[in-house]
Prior knowledge:
Belongs to the TRAFAC class translation factor GTPase superfamily. Classic translation factor GTPase family. LepA subfamily. Belongs to the GTP-binding elongation factor family. LepA subfamily. This is Elongation factor 4. By secondary structure, this protein is α+β, with helices and mostly antiparallel strands. It is built from 14 helices and 31 strands. The strands form 6 sheets. The protein has an 8-stranded antiparallel β-sheet. It has a 6-stranded mixed β-sheet with strand order 2-3-1-4-5-6, sandwiched between helices. Strands 19, 20, 21, 22, 23 and 24 form a 6-stranded antiparallel β-sheet that branches. About 1% of the residues have low confidence. Bound molecules: guanosine-5'-diphosphate (GDP) and magnesium ion.
Amino acid sequence: TPPERIRNFCIIAHIDHGKSTLADRMLQETGVVDQRHARAQYLDRMDIERERGITIKSQAVRMPWAVQGEAGDSTYILNMIDTPGHVDFTYEVSRSLAAGEGAVLLVDAAQGIEAQTLANLYLAMENDLTIIPVLNKIDLPAAQPEKYAEELAGLIGCDPAEVLQVSGKTGVGVPALLDTIVELVPQPVGDPDAPARAMIFDSVYDTYRGVVTYVRVVDGELSPRERITMMSTRATHELLEIGVISPEPVPSKGLGVGEVGYLITGVKDVRQSKVGDTVTGERNQAAQALGGYKEPRPMVFSGLYPIDGSDYPILRDALDRLKLNDAALVYEPETSAALGFGFRVGFLGMLHLEIVRERLEREFDLDLISTLPNVEYDVVLDDGSTFEVTNPSEFPSGRVASITEPIVRATILAPSEFIGAIMELCQNRRGTLRGMDYLSPERVEMRYTLPLAEIVFDFFDALKSRTRGYASLDYEPDGSQEADLVKVDILLQGDTVDAFSAIVHRDKAYAYGVQMATKLKELIPRQQFEVPVQAAIGSRVIARETIRAIRKDVLAKCYGGDISRKRKLLEKQKEGKKRMKMVGSVEVPQEAFIAALSQD
Ligand code: GDP
Ligand code: MG
C-alpha cells in the first residue's frame, strides 16, 4: 500500500471510557469482524485483562476503509494500534504512540476528562501526534456532551464543534470518526529506497509460534526469508513470516514504508525482540537506529515466597515461563529466615506486581506470600562505597553518607471541593505541588512530585477514600532525589526478622516501628519465656512491645497417668510445630508472618 493511502492511529482514554468497545465497533464497521463473529472485546487477549477491563499488551489491527471523494470511492488502510492503558506501562504506551501519526482522544461523555486521559494526551503531544477529540457513550442518559465538549476543546485548544460525538456501543458516529481519521491524520513519511528500519512497539510470546513481534516500518521494506538485525543487540534472525493482523494474522509478501504488522523469527524469548528497538536488514543495514529506545527498568521490588516451601521449584519454573512473555520481569533467588526460600522480584509498578502475582497463583496454582513492596535505593557510605538496595534487609552496614530514592511526576484530577484533602494527603506523603489548573470551575488538575515509595504504599486507596472515589491519578518516573531515609529493623528477642525490615523516612520510622511491633505482639502466641518485640534504627531501639510468658505445659493436665493420652498430646504438639518458623529462639507460626505482611 502506498503511504498516501495509510493512516496509523491509536485510541487514548482513561480506563472504562470505552476504548475496547469502540475498537471492536470499528472492526465491525470496517467489515474486519462481521457482526456474527464479533465477540466481546476482540482486542483484549489475556483473561486477566478481560476480567479487569484493562489492556496490558498492545496490538495492531489493519482495517480497510472506503471514503467517498469527488473521483469516486478510494480505499484507505487504517492501522489501529492498541496501547496499554496503565501508568506502569508508560514506556510501552509511548512506543505504541510513536508507531502512529494520530490519536483519538476518547472521553466518556458522562465523566469528562480524567487523569489517564491527560497523561496519555501529554505523551501523544510529545510524539507530535494529531489529536482527534471524541466524546464517547453519548447514548447514555447521563451524558453531558455540551459540557464535556467544551472541557475537551478547552484542553486541546479547538472549537467545541470540532469534538466528535460517538457511541461505541450503538455505533452512532463511528463511520464519521473513521472518515475524520482519514482526513486529519497525516500519512506516514519515510524513505522507500533507504535501508529498512522498523520500530518494535510490542512483542508477545505465543506457545506455538514463539515470539510475535509488532513493528511499524519507517524506511525501506522488510520481506519474508531475508535476514534481519536487531540494532540494540546486533543479534540476527531469519524472517520466517511477516504479515498483518486483520483481525487474525495474515502473512504478506512484505511490509513497506508506513506499514504496521508482525514478524516471526522463531525466537523463544521476548527479550530478543525488545520494545523500542529498531529492526534492519542484515545485508543492507541502516546506519542509525530510530530514536527512543530504552531498557525496561523495574521500579518496585518485592519478595515472593511459596507458602508451602515444597512449591519452590514450581515457583521458579513459573517465573521462568512468565519471563518469556514479559521483558520487564526480573528476579533472583532470595532466602529469608522468616519465610524460607523465595525470589526477589522486580516490577514496573504496583499493577504489574499484582498481575504477575495473580498469574502465578492462577495459572500455576501457587499460594504465595509477598513482602511489603519497596523501591530501589542508591546508598553511599562515608567510605565512598555505593550500593543499589532492592531489599531492605540487604542494607549495607557502615555510616551512611546519602540515600537517593526514585521520584515520580503525578497528575491528579478531582472535583475542586477536594483540593484541601488532596493537598493534605500529598503533604503527608512528602509531595511537592508543581502546579494546578482548573479544567472547569468544578474540576481541577493538580501536578505533584512525590517519592515513588510513598505511592507504592496504598496511595491510590488513600486518594480514593479522601475524594469519595472521584479523584483519578496517573504518574511517570521523574528521576531520583536524596532523602533523609533510615532502615528500620523489627527484632524478636533481639533477633532481626528479615522480612520486616523497611527503609522509611526518618519522620515515619517511629510510626512504622510501633505499627509492626503491635501487629506482631498480637499475632505471635505466647512462649515459655518473655519475648520483647522491638523496632530499631541500627542499634537504637525506637519502639518496644512485650509478649508475656506462659507456661504452656500440655502434659500437666495428664497427672502423669494415662500414657497413651500423653503420647497423643505430644504428637499433636509436634504437628503444630511443623508450620512454625524459628527466629532466634522464638517460635513463630507462619500464619503470623503472613497476617503481618498482608496490608490492612
Ligand atoms: P476501556 O477500559 O476504555 O477499554 O472501556 P471498555 O470498552 O471496556 O468499556 C467500559 C464500560 O463502558 C463497559 O461496561 C462498556 O460496556 C461500557 N461502554 C463502552 N462504550 C459505551 C458506549 O458507547 N455507551 C455505553 N452506554 N456504554 C459503553
Ligand atoms: Mg479496554
